[in-house]
Amino acid sequence: MISVAIDGPAGAGKSTIARAVAEKLGLLYIDTGALYRSIGLAVLREGKDPAREEDTCGCLPGISLALRHENGAQQVYLNGENVSEKIRTPEVSMAASQVSAFPAVRAFLLEQQRDLARKNSVIMDGRDIGTVVLPFADVKIFLTASPEERARRRYLEQCGKGEEESYEEVLRKVIERDYNDSHRAAAPLKQAEDAVLADTTGLDFAEAAALVEQIILDRAGGQLAGEGARE
Ligand code: DC
Predict the structure, then answer these.
(1) For residue 129, which atom of ligand 1 is closest to its CA?
(2) Is the pLDDT of residue 44 over 90?
(3) pLDDT tens per residue, range 162-202
(4) Which residue's C-alpha comes closest to atom 13 of ligand 1?
(5) Residues 6 or more apart from 139 whose CB is under 8 A from it?
(6) Which of 10, 41, 192, 227 could, after both became Cys, cross-link 130 (CB 3.0–4.6 A)?
(7) Over 60: is that where the pLDDT of 229 sits?
(8) Mean pLDDT throughout 133-143?
(9) Do 182 and 189 contact (CB within 8 A), yes or no?
């Protein structure tokens, strides 16, 4: 089994890059943000405030989450319902960032994430994978890009979906989410000491994916070859 941890701020391209590299190297891609998003969605659906610890923690006993891979894509189930699409709204993004600050939420998800890495060779992306969830990961990458570049990418993506937020508004939210994610007391976003920094500012998708793939091959190419992974 090998494990690759990819952490970094929102919009750095972690999920698209990790998904593509996982497929190329024959690893299972795990997007842990989907778990936090599903908890955010569950709290909103209960009519509770995801920014309030009592509200969020009160919802946890009623939440059961499962990640499954169907036709190569990760699907997330909340109490048996596939919510993979419903967790991708701006409202759920903010709720996810809020609930992820609570230690009880992080503890609730910890074993589930570790279990996936015990049973599979994975590329796991999140905020605290290299620091907390998989401190002994074979490869740790901290993937980032400037806030302006990340906001520009998100803005273009949203324009493609017909959403009407201005670039300035998107940039403001990127900065706010960065601040929330890196200043919370519980498992804040930070680069693990033994992580390789990959800055994708100015790189296109193919260049960024090639950079990440090269880091993995440099650090764990031998192990991958041993597992019979595809080149
Ligand atoms: O990666 P994402 O945007 O889907 O993550 C949604 C939120 O969940 C994000 O604001 C930070 C939080 N998160 C976290 O705290 N730890 C993780 N391992 C993954 C996500």
Answers:
(1) 18
(2) yes
(3) 878 899 999 999 999 888 888 988 888 889 999 999 999 99
(4) 33
(5) 2, 3, 4, 5, 196, 215, 216, 219, 220
(6) 192
(7) no
(8) 97
(9) yes
pLDDT of residue 149: 95
Which of the listed residues 3, 30, 36, 182 should we mutate to test ligand 1's pocket, taking the one with most ligand atoms within 8 A of CB? Answer: 36
227 burial class (0-12, 13-18, 19+ CB within 10 angstroms)?
middle
**Atom 14 of ligand 1 has which residue's CA nearest to it?**
127
> How many angstroms separate the Cα of 57 from the Cα of each of 51, 52, 107?
11, 9, 11
Q: Where does ligand 1 bind, in terms of residues with CB under 6 Å?
A: 10, 32-33, 36-37, 96-97, 100, 126-129, 177, 181
Q: Is 106 exposed, middle or buried (0-12, 13-18, 19+ CB in 10 A)?
A: buried
